[in-house]
Amino acid sequence: MEFGRLFTAMITPFDNNGDVDWSTLEPLVEYLLATGSDGLVVAGTTGESPTLKTEEKLSLFKRVKEIAGQRAFVMAGTGTNDTAYSKELTEKASALGIDGIMAVTPYYNKPSQEGMYHHFQTIANAAFSLPVMIYNIPGRCIVNLEADTLLRLTELPNINAVKEASGDFDQIAYVLDKTPDNFHVYSGDDSSTLPIMSIGGTGVVSVAAHVIGHEIKSMINSFAAGETVKAAALHRKLLPQMKACFMTPNPAPVKAMLEQRGVGSRMTRAPLLPLNEAELKQLEEWFSLA
């Protein structure tokens, strides 16, 4: 099943009391689809998943899919560092009509490669026939899902993609070389989108698409159409804005920018803090200079 090229790792909107702002969810989804997103990842890291209750996650999965319908590929973020809980959440999410599962490498407890294989195998089985995208991000999770472990996992019929944020282009190239054409490698860093596509990757699971979705989609489409010079120029132009989206811990900057555009508020859940006025002014200046 084709996923599309531009996924947005969607924020979870909160109101001033710190509750999920259900009234903002539909405008947010419509905004992201209108600005180029082919798919949405719900309750991932950018969605502040560590602070979401299970009931909130399941309600978000269901509601986002109801809003998006067939217009976007909706993935549920069900991976944690607890295999049994990830299995249970994946089973419940898979019954809600969503299109796929995203599962991050287990964080903090530093499992072995065999432990990670077992973890993702369990999640893939719990997803029934739904596609599973593995998320490899050693900078946050400490552990790196090594290429040979991932290749073993691709032998499972529904592990169809990886979101790569290791920054190891040798590893990424090796995976691309050894996997079939219907296995998809996505960049997990906005700034690595074009470099990963240049060695055979499919696209990106983006944070910056919340604010520069059209521009990122144009870069991706240009490269896919063989317009490499144009794509490279867009990449260079967009880099400062991509970097600005991480001036403080994600997703505070993109939430602040969305607030400026009338889509939700800048509110986050502790321990993350929303941008203060000085930080917001700096962010606006960086975007105005881009």
TrEMBL record:
UniProt entry keywords in alphabetical sequence: Amino-acid biosynthesis, Cytoplasm, Diaminopimelate biosynthesis, Lyase, Lysine biosynthesis, Schiff base
Main location: cytoplasm
Positions with a binding annotation for pyruvate: T46, V205
MF GO annotations: 4-hydroxy-tetrahydrodipicolinate synthase activity
Subcellular location: Cytoplasm
Keyword Hydrolase: no
Keyword Cytoplasm: yes
HAMAP family documented for this protein: DapA
Functional summary from the UniProt entry: Catalyzes the condensation of (S)-aspartate-beta-semialdehyde [(S)-ASA] and pyruvate to 4-hydroxy-tetrahydrodipicolinate (HTPA).
Family: Belongs to the DapA family.
Protein name as it appears in the record: 4-hydroxy-tetrahydrodipicolinate synthase
